[in-house]
Structures are given as C-alpha cells and as structure tokens.
C-alpha cells in the first residue's frame, strides 16, 4: 500500500528501525536510519504558479507494440533524430542502435574502460545538444577506480561494431561501489549536463558537499561546473540524496528526480538548486524545514524507481522491484492527485522510460540484469501511449 501523507512523528519513528537496504534490485542488506537533523531553518514557500492546466486525476496506458527484443542488461536509452534510438548495455559495455520501425539492432561498439560489477557498468547515455553537427554521445560508466562521464563520436560510416570513437573523459572522480552508483545523465533545457549520483552505501557522502556521491551534479558539456550553480566553483547542484536514477523536466522546464529509499520510502522530488534532500537523516517526508520533502513517496516493494519521463501533464516513473509504471499527475511542482500504477507484473522490472512525443513513451525492461525473472524475448523496448 502506498503512503502519501506522513506525519513527522511517524517518519521519525520509521528512521529508528534497523532494516535492509533497498538497492536498485529491491534487495536488502543491513543498514540503519540516520540521526535527527539539527538544521530547522524554515524554507520559504514556493510562489503560487498560475495558468497551468491540471491533468485528469485518472489516466491510461496502452502498450502499442514491442519495438525490440533480445537486449542484454539494457540501462540507458537516447532517441536519435529520425526515430531510431541508442541503448546501452550495463554488463556488456556496448551501445546498440535500434531501428524505431523494425526493431533491428546494430551494435555501434564497446565503450573502453568499463568495469561492470554489481550495479555498476555502462549506465546512462545522452546525446550532445549539438548532436546534429558533432555526433557526440555522452556516457556514464563505472571504471576500475570511479564512476565517470565520457563522450564518444558516433561515426555511422564505419562498419558495425566500430562506430564509436575513442572516449574523451569529461568528468571523473564520482565514487563507485557495488551498489548505489547513480548513473542517469541528461541535458537540460539550459543545455547543461545533469548527473544523478549515488552514495555507494557510504551514507556520509550525501551530506558532504565536497563529495560527488549522493548528489545531482550540473556540468557544462566540457565537464566544468556549470555557470550559476548554487555553490561556488562546484558541480554540486543538490545534495542529501541516496541514489538518484531518474531525471526529467516538465513543460515549464522544472526538474524532477526519482530516488531509491533504504527500507521504508522511495521518493519523487522536485529539484531546487542548493537544496538538501535529507539522506541519511531523513528518508521520505520528514516535516523538517531544513530538508526538501518529496512530492510523493512509495514503499520500496512498490517502486524501487529508476527512470522518469514527463508527458501529458504527468510524470511517469519506471519501477524495478515494483515491476510497474507509475503515473504522477502534476500541478506545478506538486502531485495533483494520487498516483496510479500500470502494467504491474506484466513485463517484469522496468528500468528506463523516455518521452517520445506528446503522448508516447519508450519503456525499457530490466530482467536480464541478474535480479529479474527472465522471460522469452527479454529484455525489450516497448512503445507506450499514455494520457
């Protein structure tokens, strides 16, 4: 059962429980909640926004077709101009082109330097804002020493398997671990690169603004701290996160992020630069003015969220352990109605969801990553119509 409104007393009590760690697979390992926060500075109320249509309280989802099958440990997906898209394989460290009409797959090549282990490997990918002219693919991956971001030229004139240029490292030093490696990257409306990172199981990294773990980072395409970041000369955009794996902007260019909880609450957050999202002192709603509470939260067995996308006035959130697609209708930066779940158990674990038009999503399953029940045809990409 999902819980939306939680009193501060109940949330604080939940933090006292000794329980497991809900990683991206929904598995558990020993861990504790954090201490009571001491920063009680009240956050100013957001100004009321006007002129926004509220989406219907109830929506719908229809799987139109299975676009591609037989993918191995797919993680990131990047739509190409013209209707095809690229997909990364976490464990094989390859990037593959998928024909958007026929589903035919063509391997571009293997990304050098990837060291897959646990939840690490070749994770998120994104196209350069100048892709039409520079043909550059950005990729987030786990190396032998850290998590890093590289860019590679996509040369379509080369033979299959040899279409990726040598990687150019634009950012390095993100902490790595067996779990909680983050990995989602996306270029925002401002043409800056946003990066979701995890705290690798070392909870102290999340509140340390000098660490790159447990953060959302904002970078220039060259990997420098982006102009206007909240902390001088720092790539850190927000902190106090546990494991960010979903990034999406709404129609008014407001950023949202999904986040794995530990044993109690998974989160969907509205992102404001410089804000503290509470981990490990808070998991889910805390009612403490020093932390930015989520706009919604779920028990870990219902979600364990990964990718998110915005379409038809709602955020759509892929669930791994929850094996379902969540719809969260929005009014401004708040949920306007209770979330709905779709496709529960029908396709297994859902890793990535990407908007592909006003009412269309690409949805990527994740059953071949060692944690799911593999079905005939896994893993697959689905075309989904939503409202």
Give the helix/strand layout.
Elements: H1 8-15, E1 18-20, E2 30-32, E3 61-68, E4 74-79, E5 85-89, E6 94-98, E7 105-110, E8 122-127, H2 131-134, E9 136-142, E10 147-153, E11 168-174, E12 185-187, E13 193-196, H3 204-207, E14 216-219, E15 236-238, E16 244-249, E17 255-259, E18 266-270, E19 296-298, E20 305-311, E21 314-319, E22 325-331, E23 334-335, E24 340-342, E25 350-355, E26 360-365, E27 381-386
Antiparallel strand pairs: 1-2, 3-27, 4-5, 5-6, 6-7, 8-9, 9-10, 10-11, 12-13, 13-14, 14-15, 16-17, 17-18, 18-19, 20-21, 21-22, 22-23, 22-24, 25-26, 26-27
Notes on the structure:
- With 387 residues, the protein is mainly beta.
- The chain has a single domain, classed as 6 Propeller (Neuraminidase), CATH 2.120.10.30.
- 4% of the residues lie in helices and 36% in strands.
- It has three helices and 27 strands.
- The strands form seven sheets. Strands 20, 21, 22, 23 and 24 form a five-stranded antiparallel β-sheet that branches.
- Strand 6 and strand 7 (105-110) form a beta hairpin.
- The longest helix is centred in the first third of the chain and has 8 residues, at 8-15.
- The protein is globular, with a radius of gyration of 19 Å.
- The model is unreliable at 1-23 and 27-50 (pLDDT under 50).
